[in-house]
């Protein structure tokens, strides 16, 4: 991606509620440089509203997400007629491999939806993404929780992504099975993780060594 398109990239990023990553194009690092009394970032912000810019935007999801994102893109382009956003979307299957191949070949879209648990691998393989903290005039991140950004969006001390939202995992307990093994799952009392580990997790059943297992409970995701 040409650095002259940076202003349009961050404007386009705003339509997705401050989402995703911005591809820097190969291993180039986009950093503001002084040019007279105006930085490159400031110049890009001005030029981005005037010159014709085309950006590719990739995401995965179901039909509901596709339609909502396409409507947001249309709204943004209506308000910014100099910007064209080309949508590249589909299902989740094969998406990560496709993006990995594009990043390696320097053909990746300008704006990309990624899972947070993919990011460490990408960050260790190359400097693929725009360093968002280098463009404070184009991207205001003050509305995001700093601890959350540091946990999910900062890699190698660089802010390279912004969250589209937050979600949480939920554990369901089978009432009949709980009663069979003498577990009290009354909703009158708050069930803490300590309760789960000390009581529920210690009960063995069905010839297993563990009382209960929660798979990938700590897995990080960026939606």
UniProtKB/TrEMBL annotation:
Q: Where is the secretion signal located?
A: 1-16
What SUPFAM superfamilies would the database entry show? Answer: Periplasmic binding protein-like II
The protein's UniProt keywords, in alphabetical order, are: Signal
Q: Where is this region: Disordered?
A: 25-47
Keyword Signal among record annotations: yes
Does the record bear Amino-acid biosynthesis in its keywords?
A: no
Report the superkingdom from the record: Bacteria
Write down the PANTHER family for this protein, in alphabetical order.
Answer: ABC TRANSPORTER SUBSTRATE-BINDING PROTEIN YESO-RELATED, ARABINOSE-BINDING PROTEIN-RELATED
The protein, known as? Extracellular solute-binding protein
């Amino acid at each position: 991606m040409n650095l002259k398109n940076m202003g349009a990239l961050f404007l386009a990023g705003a339509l997705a509620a401050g989402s995703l990553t911005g591809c820097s194009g190969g291993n180039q690092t986009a950093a503001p440089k002084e040019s007279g009394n105006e930085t490159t970032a400031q110049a890009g912000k001005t030029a981005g509203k005037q010159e014709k810019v085309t950006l590719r935007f990739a995401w995965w999801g179901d039909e509901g997400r596709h339609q909502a994102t396409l409507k947001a893109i249309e709204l943004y382009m209506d308000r910014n007629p100099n910007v064209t956003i080309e949508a590249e979307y589909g299902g989740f299957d094969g998406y990560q491999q496709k993006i990995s191949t594009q990043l390696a070949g320097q053909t990746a879209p300008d704006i990309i939806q990624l899972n947070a648990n993919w990011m460490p691998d990408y960050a260790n393989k190359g400097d693929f993404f725009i360093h968002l903290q280098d463009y404070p005039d184009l991207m205001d991140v003050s509305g995001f929780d700093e601890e959350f950004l540091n946990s999910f969006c900062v890699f190698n001390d660089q802010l390279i992504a912004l969250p589209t939202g937050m979600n949480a995992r939920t554990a369901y307990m089978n009432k009949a099975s709980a009663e069979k093994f003498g577990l009290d799952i009354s909703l009158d009392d708050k069930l803490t993780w300590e309760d789960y580990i000390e009581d529920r997790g210690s009960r063995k059943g069905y010839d297993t060594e563990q009382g209960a297992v929660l798979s990938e409970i700590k897995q990080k995701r960026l939606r």
